[in-house]
User: Which sequence fits this backbone?
């Protein structure tokens, strides 16, 4: 549906995580996949994270959804923002697909913002990489260099940064794309009624990773090694922690992650777990394997639901991690890898599923979990 007008290799070599850039007409003849009234409708849903940002007497204000009315959007200077719209809106989900030249595990979500003239969220710095696609209307963007800028709370739900000098100063029109790497200050204001789509890419920091790994270790049933003195002699300085003791503490702490492969069970579950709620449809009655095969034979395509994370590792290709759960596909890795690499699967899997009952059983289970659906 959306074809990216971009020299991908040049972009990766020159700009990805190096510097911001504007991609004029990144989508040629762009048509919005969702209309403002649909955006407002989604903001009324309890499952969807939404915010309304505006100013009152020059003071920033922010309200959290769900919303039952939108009087603020009748005035200039207001913005309605929705997170993870790709989880809930099939057509909007299509906007994520062109960016899958980057690893799936890095993709965060699709945020959509609708603004009246003058609407924005103020100058800020994101902790993720983002492609901002201009839809309806026009928006003026300024992007600064990656410098140490002070940040402060403009409101309890809004973090701003100090003023910056722009290295990019541009008006985006429908189909234009602004790429901003993690850590670059930016601000955008609608020049008229405008819709923007932000495809974000997560960049976890050390604290995020260590905290998650620690939680995983605490929840694990595996025994934990306890510190033990290797050599003990009478101390003349009992208040001193000796180098060999610190080294042993360091060894004990790293014992659970001595090799990259040791991180796989934790990281696979962590990175495949949905950050936002998924739109999983409850089945009236679970499918059996014969029904799944019949659907394939009739030419059905099975589509992965929006926002579902599915990954595998080069080091351990037989393990699949889908929505925080580990699956083993030791004897049919082709199926597992295809499910993780593709958004849709069809007749290309028919031969494999006919020949391998275990592969068919796994795929049937994933369909019954609501992760893939036939269309």
Assistant:
């Amino acid at each position: 549906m959306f074809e990216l007008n971009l020299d991908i290799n040049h972009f990766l070599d020159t700009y990805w995580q190096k510097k911001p850039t504007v991609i004029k007409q990144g989508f040629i003849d762009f048509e919005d996949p969702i209309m403002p009234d649909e955006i407002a409708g989604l903001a009324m849903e309890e499952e969807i994270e939404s915010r309304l940002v505006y100013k009152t007497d020059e003071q920033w204000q922010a309200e959290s959804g769900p919303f039952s009315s939108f009087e603020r959007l009748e005035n200039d200077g207001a913005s309605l923002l929705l997170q993870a719209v790709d989880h809930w809106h099939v057509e909007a989900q299509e906007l994520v697909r062109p960016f899958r030249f980057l690893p799936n595990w890095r993709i965060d979500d699709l945020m959509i913002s609708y603004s009246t003239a003058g609407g924005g969220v103020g100058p800020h710095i994101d902790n993720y990489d983002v492609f901002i696609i201009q839809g309806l209307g026009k928006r003026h963007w300024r992007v600064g260099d990656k410098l140490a800028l002070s940040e402060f709370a403009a409101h309890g739900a809004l973090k701003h940064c100090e003023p910056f000098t722009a290295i990019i100063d541009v008006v985006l029109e429908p189909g234009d794309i602004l790429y901003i790497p993690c850590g670059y200050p930016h601000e955008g204001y609608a020049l008229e009624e405008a819709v923007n789509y932000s495809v974000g890419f997560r960049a976890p920091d050390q604290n995020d990773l260590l905290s998650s790994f620690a939680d995983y270790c605490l929840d694990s049933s595996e025994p934990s090694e306890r510190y033990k003195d290797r050599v003990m002699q009478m101390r003349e300085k009992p208040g001193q922690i000796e180098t060999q003791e610190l080294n042993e503490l360091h060894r004990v702490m790293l014992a659970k992650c001595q090799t990259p492969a040791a991180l796989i069970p934790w990281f696979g579950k962590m990175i495949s777990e949905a950050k936002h709620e998924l739109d999983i449809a409850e089945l009236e009655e679970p499918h059996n394997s014969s029904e799944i095969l019949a659907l394939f034979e009739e030419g059905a395509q099975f589509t992965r639901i929006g926002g579902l994370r599915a990954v595998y590792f080069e080091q351990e290709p037989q393990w699949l991690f889908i929505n925080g759960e580990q699956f083993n596909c030791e004897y049919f890795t082709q199926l597992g890898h295809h499910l993780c690499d593709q958004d849709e699967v069809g007749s290309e899997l028919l031969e494999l599923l006919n020949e391998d009952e275990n592969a068919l059983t796994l795929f049937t289970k994933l369909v019954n979990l609501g992760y893939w659906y036939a269309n």
Observations:
- The mean pLDDT is 94.
- The chain has three domains: 8-202, 206-230+242-258, 289-374.
